[in-house]
Design brief:
- There is one protein chain.
- The chain is an alpha/beta fold and 218 residues long.
- It has a single domain (4-214), classed as Glycosidases (TIM Barrel, Alpha-Beta Barrel), CATH 3.20.20.
- Helix content is 25%, strand content 15%.
- It contains five helices and eight strands; from the N terminus they run αβααβαβαβββββ.
- A four-stranded parallel β-sheet has the order 3-2-1-8. Strands 4-5 form a two-stranded parallel ribbon.
- The chain starts with 6 loop residues before the first helix and ends with a strand.
- 33% of the residues are buried.
- The model is unreliable at 172-177 and 181-218 (pLDDT under 50).
Amino acid sequence: MPVSSLWVDIFEKIKALGFNTVSFYVHWGLVEYAKDDFNFDGHLSLEPFFEAAKKTGMYLIARPGPYINAETTGGGTPGWGARVLGAWRTSNQTYLDAMEGYTRQISKILAPAQITNGGPLILVQPENEFSYCFEIPNCPVPWPQPKYMQYLQDLMREEGLVIPTITLVGQFPCIEVEGCPLIIVPLYLETKSSIHPPTTNRDQGMVELTFADMTIIP
């Protein structure tokens, strides 16, 4: 929703429904409409969104992609990407070069809003639904892509993101795959090292996250 003055009201309504966390997408194609020309100003600014979440006592989970799916054209990737040769969402160098600038820019914006800095941001999800090609014959983008996922996470870390990374998988958990970030079961994140479904081990260090999923296209 591009009307930032309404965000506090929206967060308060979500909180009144019993939620304590909101996950949100960032649409790469809107903020880098032309290659290397970034625009996070005005209604595209995320700072008022962060401030509204903090004011209302809500946590945030950032889902900046670069691919977000979200039923958007190209999964939120910019139109100029269609002119970049080579497979996207892989370790193909032309794709890594294309997404690096955006990943660095959005990571710099997210970093000050982390809970470690007194902000509302508690988790970040690189990529989205990246297991869609698991066991699909003749899939154009083989899965997994550990080098790509590691490179993506390294860029985020280099720009100051220190909070845990998570992933959302569509068909197959990648917890044993090199380069795959931590998996959580929606609503529950364990503070230790293993993951459990919501029906088990709720008394063993689990933090309950009752979160609403918002597609924020600022």
